[in-house]
Design goal:
alpha+beta; 30% helix; two-stranded antiparallel ribbon; 76 residues; 11% strand
Length: 76
């Protein structure tokens, strides 16, 4: 099954993802018109771009899951 399935907004998702790759290849920054500014990931903010329609930037989107690993010395 294709990665994006048969969702009706598939063409937009494909356009936004490929646009991010193309822009990144040319500028070292994937941000382009039509998506939010793609902030660098740091341990302080854990900025994560959610690749969906529309794209969205979330800080630390999986905090609860990451907290489950605390004390196991696998995540800084």
């Amino acid at each position: 099954m294709p990665l994006t399935g048969s969702r009706p907004d598939k063409p937009r998702l494909v356009e936004d993802v490929s646009g991010a790759w193309i822009t990144f290849a040319h500028t070292s920054n994937p941000s382009h018109k039509g998506i939010p500014v793609w902030e660098p990931y740091t341990l302080e903010n854990r900025a994560t771009m959610i690749l969906d329609v529309p794209f969205r930037l979330e800080n630390d989107p999986a905090r609860e899951e990451l907290d489950a690993w605390k004390g196991m010395n696998v995540i800084p």
